[in-house]
């Protein structure tokens, strides 16, 4: 973007494609403030410029700003097109603004906009994330060509809202279709299994990843640890952690410790403390994440005296405390708090 900026500033004249390229470019690297500054410099704006800003806002999580820009664009007399509504529907999905999303859907129908795969995917995603699974399914079933993103939106929507049976049903349908499940699909289905307490089904689904040529990430392992832990299979969850091809992070340990706390397995808590203390980056090195993890371990297990000692050491060394809980964030799914 620095090279683009130098070229941009040297241009004697700039058309709307050039302005939009700079706006989109800054948004792609997360520099929304600079993107807005470029947008404000556009001498004569058109729909392409507005779309670049609205979509850039949505892609970076500035959803209220995206909707505000959408309103201003309409006030200036510009008619939205398919690109506009995709950005706006994404903002509605992230903010769970179902009523606004429905209004956009009505507008799409009223204006006779082309229902290309991007618009339809955005509609399914909006309805699913806002909890209107009936609306999402109606749009989904009317699609002639269902791509990977659309399947994932449906499966994720069912998983997030505790519809385990439906999530597994759609996963089966996806396997029978021409679209292959990807990493996001498996995260969503494993999440559904956690909701439903379906341990054996979850283990079987996890094993399918290799058949599709997919490598399980630490998020997939963390979800499986959560599934086993909630079912009381503490030893199995621990053996899974120890056999992971990557080092467990605080999220994985947090899911495991949450299970230990629920099932009152204090011996396993002590084992986790020993594992953390004897890891390559030991607590003695003054590593902040390990101190924070130890604090959460002791607090979570009710060992307040030990937690107090760790907290004092952190304070003495000027280390920042973290919240006494861990969370597992799954793409396109919910956040589990432990």
Automatic annotation (TrEMBL):
Biological processes, Gene Ontology terms: RNA modification
A GO term, aspect molecular function: RNA binding
Keyword line: Repeat
InterPro entries: PPR_At4g14850-like_plant (IPR046960), PPR_rpt (IPR002885), TPR-like_helical_dom_sf (IPR011990)
Repeat region (PPR), residues: 15-45, 46-80, 116-146, 147-181, 182-216
Keyword presence, Repeat: yes
Signal sequence extent: none
Family note: Belongs to the PPR family. PCMP-H subfamily.
PANTHER family xref list: PENTATRICOPEPTIDE REPEAT-CONTAINING PROTEIN (PTHR47926:SF484)
Protein known as: Pentatricopeptide repeat-containing protein
Organism this protein belongs to: Populus deltoides
Lineage: Eukaryota, Viridiplantae, Streptophyta, Embryophyta, Tracheophyta
